[in-house]
Amino acid sequence: MANRALAEEVRTVFEAPATKKRSGIFEKVATALGLIVRRVDELAALRERVERLEAGRLEYFGIHSANKTYRRGALVTRSGAMWLCENDTSTTPGESDAWRLVVKRGAFSP
Question: Tens place of pLDDT for every residue, the chain, 110 residues?
Fold first, then answer.
């Protein structure tokens, strides 16, 4: 409702001859544009945050394959143990610092 009133005031002011009212509406428009710019900046920051969060999500890829490159957040199994990829790599779990052991191989149970 307030936006409709502001839009009507803007139309009225621009149809009228130049007055002090016109400078007042410019101040209101400048204030509104400032708010919009801040919201756009906030949205850009949130978008970046979502991208970082999604990039760090965990995803299970099954048994480790030597012919594959794994991204950070990948989970694989190798020799019965589960490994987490902490940095993009094509190395084998347990043979580089790119992997962290998450679950040791346990005893078989039915």
Answer: 566 676 677 666 666 666 666 667 778 888 888 888 889 889 999 999 888 877 768 899 999 999 999 998 899 999 999 999 999 999 999 999 999 999 998 776 55
Helix (H, G, I), strand (E, B) or coil at 83: strand
Residue 9 to residue 33: CA distance in whole angstroms: 16
Tell me the domains of the chain and their CATH numbers.
Answer: 2-55 (no CATH), 59-103 (2.10.10.20)
Q: Cβ of 82: how many Cβ atoms within 10 Å?
A: 16
Residue position matching structure tokens 């400032």? 34
Question: For the chain, where are the alpha helices, taking DSSP H only?
Answer: 2-15, 20-55
* Distance (Å, whole) CA 21 – CA 61: 65
Sign of CA dihedral 101, 97, 95, 93: positive
Please work out, in degrees rounded to the nearest 5, the angle formed at the alpha carbon of residue 29 by the alpha carbons of 23 and 35: 145
